[in-house]
Amino acid sequence: MASAGHNTLVVLGPTASGKTRLAVQLARTLGGEILSADSRQVYRGLDIGSGKDLSEYAEGGALVPYRLIDIADLDSEYSVFHFQRDCFAAWEDVTARGSLPIITGGTGLYLDAVLRGYRMAEVPEDVALRARLDALDDAALAAELQTLKPEQHNTTDTLDRARTIRAIEITTHEHEHPPEPGPPIRAVVLGALWPREELRKRIAARLQERLNVGMIEEVEALHARGVPWERLDLLGLEYRFVAAYLRGDLKNRNDLFQKLNAAIAQFAKRQDTWFRRMERNGTEIHWVPEARLDAALAILRTLS
Question: Tens of pLDDT along 276-300?
Answer without folding.
Answer: 999 999 999 999 999 999 999 999 9
